Amino acid sequence: MGEDGVATDSGPYNSLLRAHFRDGDLARSGKLIEEMKSYGCSADASTINIVMDMLSDGRLNKSFLDMLS
């Protein structure tokens, strides 16, 4: 997203994260989190909730939460 010169916030990333997590694509989800950070987007409450919900039901491990900091 940021490569095209389009300034974005975490909203579009959260939508993509939710979709990739739902599909079980953890590798792509991790890359999206890294991309989001590289373009200066901070994780917001929604991003953290997405990750926390998946942590609490066992679909993710703690490394994803560490990526948000």
From TrEMBL:
<dbReference type="InterPro" id="IPR011990">
    <property type="entry name" value="TPR-like_helical_dom_sf"/>
</dbReference>
<feature type="repeat" description="PPR">
    <location>
        <begin position="9"/>
        <end position="43"/>
    </location>
</feature>
<dbReference type="Pfam" id="PF13041">
    <property type="entry name" value="PPR_2"/>
</dbReference>
<keyword id="KW-0677">Repeat</keyword>
<protein>
    <recommendedName>
        <fullName>Pentacotripeptide-repeat region of PRORP domain-containing protein</fullName>
    </recommendedName>
</protein>
<dbReference type="InterPro" id="IPR002885">
    <property type="entry name" value="PPR_rpt"/>
</dbReference>
